[in-house]
């Protein structure tokens, strides 16, 4: 019997560590080659780590939520074949200079992002016996009780328990089960009768004293870290202006009605993107990355517009690269493609990074004003609020106009209030007279 | 005739209706049950029971024919047997008769009044029954509709003459030389197999791409194999078009589109069953329907207060044991007990050769849910008892959640596995995990050991394979 050590693989250029978000195995599991062992998450993507060999899991080197440095030991496997070997950590191996053979095996990841390589070490037959580092296996975490059921899942209970609950008027969905697989026992029901019910005064209303401890991991942790940096470092100035988009909506409707079949349906966002390109041409310092540690503003020529997108797992910001080089239709097509990719989890790291300015749109949800948080280390973010028909005084009478608010935030360290206002007013002017977006002055 | 008033009126004395009435009577409810035919319904008179009698007789006969062929490994020598089907049918009728009077006796013991005749709603609380002695009006606080189901007739192949339903097939007094079975579901295959064993040349015409289409292909494969061994021709993807003008011939559009003529002495149409919702005054009521069925809630209540419905008339699965459980529950609800339908699963058994049993979710169904699934399957070819019975075809399969090993479904195909349905469904109702079954000592040598082994296999701990 030999041992395999799997180290945290290098999952992307320039990344020093990755967060363990999921174990697919536990100690004692037998795994086949290519079986997924764990999932780790970097800034931008989740990567699955497959097993390079058949074997039995001996040791797992991290807990879910741990940030693990690239190259540190992650999993030990017992494998067939090589006898009398003991495992060692990578640092020990290098220090002792033992003739350990290092294999690099092309890993087959099933996820959207391929693991470039998993670093696998196998103790060679000739290796001298070394003091075995007794792995501290975390206890297997399966079948813990009481089990909380997912919403809509039927409680597990024997017919006798179900009947007793029914006759007592107890909804078993409110009873937690201490048995295996969360099965509700007669004792659980007894406990519910003595404790669970006392506080229940009115049927249907009961105090809920439960506290669920949810570990902030994965994408949620990334979002949390990013938001904290943005809000703690950047003094935001938020500027709200209303825009009359009646003419723009007419134009949009006209274009959608007469568009070629192969072209995407236009939303308001591509128009806004083109207007931003135009406004940025006059105020290029708004399209920038502020490296506040180094005290340098990197003012970009290319306009790379991040689009804040809600996905099933949380907020993501896919980026439309070089909006200045894309016409209205191309902006729309790229926007659709990226939003779809982000929602289906197929967006690549490249597609999720490199923005120089960001649009956030909660438009569909309603809300008249937002205070957008800047996508650090950018310096500006444009927020789109819901378009509504409002009465507007034209000097003699009220007329119905399609109005929309833009709520935009700026890094006040770099952008003065005046500049912010000029920028938003410029976008307003472009959107209100949309022909100006397309015509060179 | 003097009107009858009662607390509960049950219409139909099939498995659902008579169980409902017996339980209601036991609970002291003043109960009347109306039945036009003999007590016991389809199940007892023209369904489950008589078909099993016929299947058993056919099996015994076939076994001896097989032994008489002289090439059996058991070393038994005998001469060719003869079958007197009219005697078989008479024996079957005795069993049915015993059960008829058994049901009547149980109803009487529970002090249920039996009214013989055809019932018809006048309004939601009043039913009139045409009895031999005249019209009987019954007023009831609660009514349970348990009118059951009837064989579906094909418009281009109406019953009559050589075209028969399962009911007539169970009363044939001679074995037809050539029998065509239209519909390869469980009823058609059970009867088709029985007649083939009794010597008929049987052809099964099924419109779907394979027989028993509601089950997965792996589960039905041993059945298909056995049909072939019995010389039953199975035409899948084929449609019965109608009788040829000359008579005695069924025109069939085969799977490849070509038209074929099948000579047949009898044509058994088993293309499903429809709920009986006519001729008892459904129009007088305002019941919400669910397709052709009466819509019920989890307490078997219809959309009208005081009117309940149970059994085949309320939808799939159209199985006697579902109707019985509904009947029992409904009686208890009417008696004021707190009850609701909370069954985990309704077992389904095909008495084909070999038999098929399913409870809960198939692997395919389970994979369609959100949870990850573990599947373990154990073949009877590795089971000692199966070997000694010449019953090595088939397997038992267990499906469980991967995270907590809760058993979600069990399927089996093999000789005699119908009796294992009890163990399977108990495991599901009790919320068993794979470890519960794997950790239970199963008697050796029995086919049931394959159940334990299937769960061990799902856990990756199989011992005998």
Notable traits:
heterodimer; A: 441 residues; alpha+beta; OB fold (Dihydrolipoamide Acetyltransferase, E2P); Dihydrolipoamide Transferase; Chloramphenicol Acetyltransferase; seven-stranded mixed beta sheet; six-stranded antiparallel beta sheet; 9 helices; 25% strand; globular; B: 465 residues; alpha/beta; FAD/NAD(P)-binding domain; Enolase-like, domain 1; 3 domains; five-stranded parallel beta sheet; 13 helices; 24 strands; 26% strand
Say what oligomer this is.
heterodimer
Strand percent estimate of chain B:
25-35%
Spans of chain A with pLDDT under 50 lasting ≥5 residues?
83-146
β-strand number of chain A: 21
Largest sheet of chain B: 7 strands, mixed
The CATH superfamily of the largest domain in chain B is known as: FAD/NAD(P)-binding domain
Question: Can you describe what's shown?
Answer:
The complex is a heterodimer of chains A (441) and B (465). Helices cover 24% and strands 25% of the residues of chain A. With 441 residues, chain A is α+β, with helices and mostly antiparallel strands. Chain A has three domains: 2-122, RNA polymerase II/Efflux pump adaptor protein, barrel-sandwich hybrid domain (OB fold (Dihydrolipoamide Acetyltransferase, E2P), Beta Barrel); 159-196, E3-binding domain (Dihydrolipoamide Transferase), CATH 4.10.320; 218-438, 2-Layer Sandwich (Chloramphenicol Acetyltransferase), CATH 3.30.559.10. In chain A, helix 6 packs across helix 7 (328-343) and helix 6 crosses helix 8 (417-432). The longest helix of chain A is centred in the middle third of the chain and has 16 residues, at 218-233. Chain B folds into three domains: 4-49 and 88-151 and 274-334, FAD/NAD(P)-binding domain (3-Layer(bba) Sandwich), CATH 3.50.50; 163-267, FAD/NAD(P)-binding domain; 348-458, FAD/NAD-linked reductase, C-terminal dimerisation domain (Enolase-like, domain 1, 2-Layer Sandwich), CATH 3.30.390.30. In chain B, a hairpin with a 5-residue loop joins strand 12 (239-243) and strand 13. In chain B, helix 1 packs parallel to helix 8 (320-334) and helix 3 runs antiparallel to helix 4. Chain B has helices at 15-26, 41-46, 48-68, 85-109, 166-169, 186-197, 217-229, 320-334, 363-368, 384-388, 421-429, 434-438, 449-458; strands at residues 4-11, 31-35, 113-116, 118-123, 126-131, 134-145, 149-151, 163-164, 178-182, 201-205, 233-235, 239-243, 249-253, 259-263, 266-269, 273-275, 289-290, 293-294, 307-309, 348-350, 355-360, 373-379, 395-401, 407-414. The A-B interface holds A 30, 142-143, 147, 150, 154, 156-159, 162, 166-167, 169, 179-183 and B 337-340, 342, 344, 370, 401, 403-406, 429-431, 433, 435-436, 460.
């Amino acid at each position: 019997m030999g041992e395999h050590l799997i180290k945290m693989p290098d999952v992307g250029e320039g990344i020093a560590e990755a967060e363990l978000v999921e174990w697919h195995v536990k100690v004692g599991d037998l795994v086949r080659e290519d079986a997924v062992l764990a999932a780790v998450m970097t800034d931008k993507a989740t990567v699955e780590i497959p097993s390079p060999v058949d074997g039995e899991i001996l040791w797992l080197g991290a807990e879910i939520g741990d940030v693990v440095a690239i190259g540190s030991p992650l999993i030990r496997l017992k494998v067939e074949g090589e006898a009398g070997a003991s495992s060692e950590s990578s640092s020990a191996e290098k220090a002792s200079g033992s003739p350990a053979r290092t294999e690099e095996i092309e890993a087959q990841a099933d996820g959207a992002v391929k693991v470039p390589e998993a670093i696998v070490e196998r103790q060679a037959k000739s290796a001298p016996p070394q003091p075995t580092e007794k792995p501290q296996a975390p206890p297997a975490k399966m079948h813990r009780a009481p089990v909380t059921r997912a919403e809509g899942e039927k409680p597990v209970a024997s017919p006798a328990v179900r009947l007793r609950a029914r006759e007592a008027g107890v909804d078993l969905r409110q009873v937690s089960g201490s048995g295996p697989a969360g099965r509700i026992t007669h004792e659980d029901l007894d406990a519910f009768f003595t404790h669970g019910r006392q506080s229940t005064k009115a049927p249907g209303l009961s105090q809920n004293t439960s506290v669920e401890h949810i570990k902030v991991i994965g994408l949620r942790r990334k979002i949390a870290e990013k938001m904290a940096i943005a809000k703690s470092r950047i003094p935001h100035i938020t500027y709200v202006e209303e825009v009359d988009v009646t003419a723009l909506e007419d134009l949009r409707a006209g274009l959608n009605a007469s568009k070629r079949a192969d072209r995407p349906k236009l939303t308001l966002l591509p128009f806004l993107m083109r207007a931003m390109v135009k406004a940025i041409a006059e105020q290029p310092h708004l399209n920038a990355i502020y490296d506040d540690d180094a005290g340098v503003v990197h003012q970009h020529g290319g306009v790379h517009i991040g689009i804040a997108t809600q996905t099933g797992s949380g907020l993501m910001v896919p980026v439309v690269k070089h909006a200045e080089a894309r016409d209205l239709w191309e902006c729309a097509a790229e926007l659709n493609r990226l939003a779809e990719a982000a929602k289906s989890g197929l967006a690549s790291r490249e597609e999720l990074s490199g923005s120089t300015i960001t649009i956030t749109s909660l438009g569909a949800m309603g809300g008249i004003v937002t205070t957008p948080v800047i996508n650090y280390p950018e310096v500006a973010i444009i927020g789109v609020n819901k378009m509504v028909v409002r009465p507007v005084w034209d000097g003699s009478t009220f007329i119905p106009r399609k109005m929309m608010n833009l709520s935009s935030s700026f890094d006040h360290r770099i952008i003065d209030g005046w500049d912010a206002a000029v920028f938003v007013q410029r976008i307003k002017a472009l959107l209100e007279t949309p022909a100006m977006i397309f015509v060179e002055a | 005739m003097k009107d009858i008033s009662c607390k509960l009126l049950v219409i139909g004395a099939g498995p659902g209706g008579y169980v409902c009435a017996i339980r209601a009577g036991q609970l002291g409810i003043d109960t009347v049950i109306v039945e036009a035919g003999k007590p016991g319904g389809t199940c007892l008179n023209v369904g489950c029971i008589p078909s099993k009698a016929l299947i058993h007789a056919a099996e015994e006969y076939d076994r001896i024919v097989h032994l008489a062929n002289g090439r059996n490994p058991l070393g038994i020598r005998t001469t060719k047997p003869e079958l007197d089907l009219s005697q078989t049918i008479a024996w079957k009728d005795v069993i049915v008769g015993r059960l008829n009077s058994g049901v009547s006796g149980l109803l009487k013991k529970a002090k249920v009044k039996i009214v013989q005749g055809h019932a018809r709603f006048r309004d939601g609380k009043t039913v009139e029954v045409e009895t031999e002695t005249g019209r009987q009006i019954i007023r009831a606080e609660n009514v349970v509709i348990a009118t059951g189901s009837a064989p579906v007739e094909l418009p281009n192949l109406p019953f009559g003459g050589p075209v028969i339903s399962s009911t007539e097939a169970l009363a044939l007094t001679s074995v037809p030389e050539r029998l065509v079975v239209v519909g390869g579901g469980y009823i058609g295959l059970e009867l088709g197999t029985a007649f083939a064993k009794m010597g008929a040349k049987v052809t099964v015409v099924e419109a779907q791409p394979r027989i028993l289409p509601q089950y997965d292909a792996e589960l039905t494969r041993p059945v298909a194999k056995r049909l072939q061994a019995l010389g039953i021709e199975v035409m899948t993807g084929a449609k019965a078009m109608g009788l040829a003008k000359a008579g005695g011939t069924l025109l069939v559009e085969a799977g490849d589109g070509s038209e074929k003529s099948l000579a047949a002495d009898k044509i058994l149409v088993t293309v499903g069953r429809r709920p009986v919702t006519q001729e008892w005054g459904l129009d007088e009521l305002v019941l919400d329907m669910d397709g052709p069925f009466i819509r019920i809630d989890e307490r078997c209540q219809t959309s009208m207060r005081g009117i309940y419905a149970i059994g085949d008339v309320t939808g799939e699965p159209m199985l006697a044991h579902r109707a019985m459980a509904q009947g029992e529950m409904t009686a208890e609800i009417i008696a004021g007990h707190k009850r609701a339908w909370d069954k985990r699963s309704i077992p389904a058994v095909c008495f084909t050769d070999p038999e098929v049993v399913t409870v809960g979710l198939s692997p395919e169904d389970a994979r369609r849910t959100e949870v990850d699934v573990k599947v373990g399957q154990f073949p009877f070819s590795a089971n000692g008892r199966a070997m000694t019975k010449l019953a090595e075809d088939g397997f038992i399969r267990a499906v469980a959640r991967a995270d907590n090993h809760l058993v979600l479904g069990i399927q089996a195909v093999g000789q005699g596995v119908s009796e294992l349905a009890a163990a399977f469904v108990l495991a599901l109702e009790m919320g068993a995990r794979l470890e519960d079954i794997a950790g239970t000592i199963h008697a050796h040598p029995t086919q049931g050991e394959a159940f334990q082994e299937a769960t061990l296999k799902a856990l990756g701990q199989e011992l005998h394979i």
